[in-house]
Every structure is written in C-alpha cells, then in structure tokens.
Design brief:
233 residues, alpha+beta, three-stranded antiparallel sheet, elongated
Length: 233
Amino acid sequence: MNRKNDFKAFSISNNANVVSQEGYEESPSLRRGFPPDNITVHLLNKVLRQSSTITSVVANFIATYSNDDVLDDGDIAKLTAQLNKALEQKISNISNIPVGIPVPWPTAIPPEGWIQCNGAVFDKSKFPKLAEAYPNGRLPDLRGEFIRGWDERRGVDNGRKLLSWQEGSALGQYPGDFDAGVAQNIHQRDGITYHDPKQNRYKISSLNSIGTGVDYIRLRPRNIAFNYIVKAE
C-alpha cells in the first residue's frame, strides 16, 4: 500500500521557469536574501524548487519506511516521530542478518523485532517475511539444542531433512578385548566424558543399535548457553 505524502517538489519540469544553477550560485540574493522591492520570479522558483525537492525526498523516505501517511498538517512532533520510526526501520533493514536466521542472544528477553526460537506458532499475516522461512508458521525449538549443517547428499548425515530433529550419539562401553586407552585419551584430552578406570575399552556406536547388551555413555562438548532468537520482520 502506497502511503500519502503531502510534501511535493515544486517547479521540477524540464521547462520550468527557474534560473540556471550557475545563475543561482552567482546571485547576490543567495547570500543576502531577496530585496523587499525586487523579487525575480525565476530566482524565487529556483529557491522553492530546491527546498521543496529535498523536503519531498525526505517525506517520501518517511512514508516508505514508517509506513505512515506524511501530512502537511503542521504537526511537527508527529513528523519527528515518523522520521525516527523510518530511520529505525531503515537501519534495521541494513543489517546483513536475514529474517528467520537463528542468532545466539545473551539475555532471556529478545530485542524488539526478534522472537525466541522456542517452537511457538507465529502469526504469518503479521510476519510475512518470517513465514517465507517457516511456511508452517511455527519456529524451531532450539532451547537446549545444537545446530548441525544440512548434509544435502554429502553422505555424512544421510536421510536428514531441513529442520529435522536428531537424537545424540553415544559411546558403547564394552569390557571385551578391544585396544585399551580410548576412554582415557578422551578424558585426559579435554575432560568431556566420565572415565571409569575399571572400564577403559570403548567402541563407537549409535543410539539406535540394539541387541548389544552394553551400556552407553552420552558425550557432550564444552559449551556456553545462549538464547537462540530470530529476526521477525
């Protein structure tokens, strides 16, 4: 929807009755103003054109980015508020972060214009750009989750769909005759898993393995908790 802009540029046609730019810059009136008894019309038109053109450009900017009508009603406070709103929206649009991309945020409350990735349903009519990223109108629930790169036929993580959830992997604990020292090495390298001195022989397995009759130790990398949020508009 095109918003109304009351501020129009004056005398902007190709054959407008205005003094040339050179003549305007050389005119004594440019520095001293018009004398009270001798106002040249084409010079006055030039003044009006310059001031009205830049005014119209600014007003169009306000109407476009504030999504409000810009009216010539003398309400300076309202116009100032509309200008601030337009600037905030423009600065927000300059951001290279597209709508819908998860971003780690250090506080519990997202900034204005952002929503927490908590699996909630959102209004697609209110957030149409967000709906382009999530057509079902529901955000992914990233609370307590890690993000993994999509395999896309590479063969590292077969069968995955975008935004699909996956259970964690684990180490299968075997007391059999495997080479010793695997768990000790992991523990001593970065302290990410529990080491039982009585059981130091391990074999890598996935959680969906069955019939092994062994226990599993779940691995977790060192991490810092952030609040995943998405830009909503």
